[in-house]
Structures are given as structure tokens and as C-alpha cells.
Design brief:
By secondary structure, this protein is an all-beta fold. It contains 1 helix and 20 strands.
């Protein structure tokens, strides 16, 4: 999407990798906008480049890696990488990253300004060995919900500025997985 606007008055579905072979990427270039006018916005792609605006307003934006894979959020990478500047270009009541086939989500160094346009961030890595890791640098969100088929590992300080932090490890209830918080690190919530 280059320099133009894509707008919908109903639920919007953008699938950049319909055959799921891990080759289709979605790009919203600088000056481009995708707006769903308070309707759900669903994106499936191998990777995204969000230099323009992505706005579902009072509705959810759902972004999944088309071939399962991994997601890197912030100062880290994955099959799909969303850096802090790209995250700041997303406006949604809730942003749902990952899903049932996502293997790994890694988060590193998201600032409050970068996450301020998102009411609630929901990270889901529900594959049976799915893991969500918070690494290296501290992160801040309005509200944060995390679900992993196996492990949730917090190795940094986490802050939610206006809502709760919820974590579910071993979401597939197979008995393998757990929650860990690195010694000396804290989770601060205001919800």
C-alpha cells in the first residue's frame, strides 16, 4: 500500500500470503493508511512493514504470521518483525499478535510512547511448545495479556500504565511449561 488509502466500513481481511508458504509480506508505506472505521482488522502475512498508518479505532487489529513462525516486537527480530516505530503507527482498542500456530514471540524495549495507541496488547503463542520471552530492555504497555502453549519468561522490567498484566503459561494444559520472572526484575501494573 503505497501513498494511498485503503478504507472499509466492515471487517477488513488482508492476507499477503494466502498459500502460507512464508513468502508474502504486507507493506504500508509512508503516507499510506489502512483504516477499518472501528471494525475488526485481520492481517496474515509472513512479515509486515508498517511505515504508514494502520487504524482499527475502537475495534481489534489481529496480526498473524502466515506460516506459524516467530514474531519479534521491538529491538529484536523474528519471521515477522515489528519495531517500535511500526508499533507506534498502529491504532487499535486491542492488538492481537500471534495465534494458535505461533511458535515464539520475543519482546525487547517497547516504550510507553510506542505502545500508546493500543488499548490492550495481547500476545499469543499457542503452539504446543509456544513461548513468549521479554528480553534485554524494559517494556511499557497500556495493558498486556500473554498466553503461551509452553513458557512465559520475563527477563526485564515490565510496566502497564493503565491496565492489567495477565500471563497464562502452558495454555494447552499438557503439563509442560511455566512462568518465570528473572530475579531483581519487576512487573508494575496500574490496573
Amino acid at each position: 500500500i503505497s501513498g494511498g488509502n485503503v478504507e472499509s466500513s466492515g471487517e477488513m481481511n488482508l492476507n499477503a500470503d494466502s498459500d502460507g508458504n512464508g513468502l508474502g509480506n504486507l507493506s504500508i508505506r509512508n503516507g499510506g493508511t489502512v483504516t477499518s472505521n472501528d471494525q475488526t482488522l485481520n492481517i496474515s502475512a509472513n512479515d509486515v512493514n508498517i511505515s504508514g498508518a494502520l487504524n482499527s479505532g475502537l475495534a481489534a487489529t489481529n496480526i498473524q504470521v502466515s506460516d506459524g513462525g516467530s514474531i519479534g516486537l521491538g529491538l529484536t527480530s523474528g519471521n515477522m518483525s515489528i519495531n517500535g516505530a511500526e508499533l507506534q503507527n498502529i491504532t487499535a482498542s486491542s492488538l492481537n499478535l500471534g495465534g494458535i500456530n505461533t511458535q515464539l514471540i520475543t519482546v525487547d524495549g517497547i516504550t510507553g510512547d510506542q505502545s500508546s495507541n493500543i488499548g490492550s496488547l495481547n500476545l499469543t503463542s499457542s503452539a504446543s511448545d509456544g513461548t513468549v520471552n521479554f528480553i534485554k530492555r524494559d517494556s511499557t504497555f497500556n495493558s498486556l495479556d500473554v498466553s503461551a502453549g509452553s513458557n512465559v519468561a520475563v527477563q526485564t522490567n515490565l510496566t502497564t500504565s493503565s491496565g492489567n498484566f495477565t500471563a497464562i503459561a502452558d495454555s494447552d494444559t499438557n503439563g509442560a511449561g511455566g512462568f518465570s520472572l528473572l530475579t531483581g526484575k519487576t512487573i508494575s501494573t496500574s490496573g
